[in-house]
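Run log, item B.
One chain of 235 residues. Sequence copied directly from the ordering sheet:
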Amino acid sequence: MPRTRYVLSVLAVGVVMLAGCSSDEQGSPETASRSDKPAAKPVGDKPKPERKMTAAELKAAIGVIVLGEGDVGREVEVQDQDDSLDAPTNDICARKSAADGDRLARNQDFFWKSANVAELVVSNEAVAYQPGKGKAAFAEIKKAVGGCDGWEHSQGEMADVEVVDPPTGTLGDAFAWRGQDSRKSGTDYSYLAVYQRRGDLVSAVYVWSTSEDEAREVADEVAPKAAARLERAVS
């Protein structure tokens, strides 16, 4: 999971989260509400030429990329947010990423329904890299996933890591992986992460659910919306 910031939801007592995938920090849910519809066919069929963007334009694009409550649906609400560059984007297998130092800006929101223990948590992380650095950072994340079976984190253990096909309607170079996130609290989550890139902008959708089928279903619904936002940001 590129980013080890998971969301463990204990609403009454406060919410402990791991983001992107999970980081040993405490994190946040996501913001903004939008309703872009998924593309009727995979967005990646005919990639549009990538427009070169300045550092200022890349930073400003974060607000266009990030998803909101309306995109996620299922009666979830933003429960936590984080835009700090201190939080990692790629901390898969508990390793540090050199590419994290190339980030210009990021925003990550966490969504779930208020409950003592959340059965579904959805997070979206939008990241802007320095001009010309996005492709290499994206490749580094993909490589990290391929070389990881699992790892322990402060809230439990991520196991059974496996690369899977990304949802239909995502961008051409999108990739996804799943795992089993077992928390010390006793809750076991099926985890699914989907990464997409346009130029130096990256959007990652992270889903935790107590149901494996629901995790895939939510990712299938939300990831195409993230693709549409990335396309909008670079057009």
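Observations after the first pass:
- Residues 111 and 145 are 24 Å apart (CA to CA).
- The longest strand covers residues 188-198.
Flagged for discussion on Thursday.
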